[in-house]
TrEMBL record:
It holds the Pfam family Lipase_GDSL. Belongs to the 'GDSL' lipolytic enzyme family. Residues 25-39 have a biased composition (Low complexity). The keyword Transferase does not apply. One of its GO terms (molecular function) is hydrolase activity, acting on ester bonds. The keyword Calcium does not apply. Residues 25-73 are annotated as: Disordered. GO terms for biological process: lipid catabolic process. Keywords: Hydrolase, Lipid degradation, Lipid metabolism, Signal. Residues 1-24 form the signal peptide. This is GDSL esterase/lipase.
Length: 424
């Protein structure tokens, strides 16, 4: 059974059931429910491909339905057992459905989308860079995937793009070979950071990505016939940014160092604020920013043992905490600037605490591992969070995009990506 839900024009609300705690869970993403396997296809927690002791389910929660006009009484129901922590409730009879039983109305996409950041958002730019692996042990910065993505399918740039109404993610800037794509481009580069020196300049740094966008803007101005028309288009466009993790990790900063003090961390945040201001000056008005996640909790390259480095996670939390006031200050000073911060740190913390409630069985191991003579892969990547020691699976990217687009609200600040998209 599939239910199609459109925007309700009467006073009845269709509410997404959300957990009141930071551990609100999803069993499937609303962004493309047809692409998911059924939950029964995943190995159970504690199986060879699961994590012993992880994945304990929590009881189904109650959800409510309200009449915003106050003409009918509200009602309460319970999420289905298959999706106990997130479901959709339809009024007035309070029937509940899992997300993979519902097709939400597709949003109208903005005129264009522009993406900046690191490997979580790179859709192929690094495939056009020289392959470099140094004696210090830097991992190659070119994806093994034919699409150029560090994923078994879609990455976060793709899943956010489809969430906001696009059929697909904007193309990698480097793939355009000097050409122009009027509905957007992706400038993200794996291994890159806010600083030019991060990763020994082996990637396309954020400052260089901004130079590429400036070139794109000049092409748009020539095509549209003036600065005013470009600004009008860009003011309605969606700008997605996600970077900073590489700057905070000593593995990527052997030569130039990484923030070891509050002063150095503030300098990094200042550089990020200046980059965002530069985008604003060029016409950007709607900015969706993904903060730094659990960079200290990953399978380690080459030995694939899962560890959590407390100091790296402390770097990430300090960076994320400093990002909020920077964005609040910019939005108060720059007329028309709207933003949403996707709390990747908070969301991954919630997922790792209760993976089974997200349809995952393994949040510690990498699905793909390097072995002789070639890579080996797990048989059920949709049950894994990590595709490789650094990046997410297709499934994890869909879950993350759904959390940022639809909520629950504790994973975005000050508004969801959906609310940002709908701002006039």
């Amino acid at each position: 059974m599939t239910v199609r839900v459109s925007v309700l024009r009467v006073g009845i609300l269709c509410l997404l059931a959300m957990s009141a705690s930071a551990s609100a869970q999803y069993r499937s993403s609303p962004s493309s429910p047809d692409s998911y396997p059924s939950p029964g296809s995943y190995p159970s927690p504690g199986s060879p491909d699961g994590n012993e002791g992880e994945g304990e389910a929590v009881p189904p929660r109650n959800v409510t339905c309200k009449d915003t006009d106050g003409k009918r009484p509200g009602c309460t129901s319970t999420c289905p057992d298959r999706c106990p922590q997130q479901c959709i409730v339809l009024c007035p009879d309070c029937k509940t459905f899992c997300h993979d039983e519902v097709k939400p109305a597709k949003p109208v996409p903005p005129p264009a989308m522009f993406v900046f950041g690191d490997g979580a958002l790179d859709v192929g730019n690094n495939a056009y860079l020289p392959k470099v692996e140094t004696e210090e042990g830097y991992p190659p910065q070119v994806s093994q995937s034919s699409s150029g993505r560090f994923s078994n399918g879609a990455n976060l740039a793709d899943t956010v793009a489809t969430s906001i109404g696009f059929q697909q993610s904007p193309p990698a800037y480097m793939s355009l070979n000097g050409g122009l794509n009027m509905w957007g481009a992706n400038y993200a580069s794996a291994g890159s950071g806010i600083k030019i020196s991060t990763n020994g300049e082996r990637s396309i740094s954020l400052p260089k990505q901004l130079e590429h966008f400036k070139a794109t803007r000049s092409q748009m101005e020539a095509k549209l016939g003036g600065d005013a028309k470009v600004r009008e288009l860009l003011s309605k466009s969606f700008f997605l940014l996600g970077t900073g993790g590489q700057d905070l990790d000593p593995r990527w900063n052997v030569e130039s160092g990484y923030p070891r003090s509050q002063t150095e961390l503030q300098e990094l945040i200042t550089l990020y604020g200046e980059a965002i201001s530069s985008l604003y000056d060029m016409g950007a008005r709607k900015m969706a920013i993904v903060n730094v996640g659990l960079i200290g909790c990953k399978p380690q390259p080459y030995n694939y043992n899962y560890v959590c480095d407390k100091s790296l996670n402390e770097n990430a939390t300090a960076f994320d905490a400093a990002l909020k006031p920077v964005m609040a200050s910019l939005s108060s000073k720059k007329q028309g600037l709207s933003y949403s911060i996707g709390d990747f740190y908070g969301f991954t913390t919630a997922v790792f605490a209760h993976p089974a409630n997200y349809g995952l069985v393994n949040t510690k191991d990498s699905c793909s591992q390097w072995g002789y003579p070639d890579w080996t892969y797990c048989y059920n990547p949709d049950g894994y969070w990590f595709w490789d020691p650094e990046f997410m699976t297709d499934r994890a990217a869909k879950l993350t995009a759904a959390a940022f687009y639809y909520g629950p609200p504790q994973f975005t600040f000050p508004v969801t990506f959906k609310a940002l998209l709908e701002k006039k």
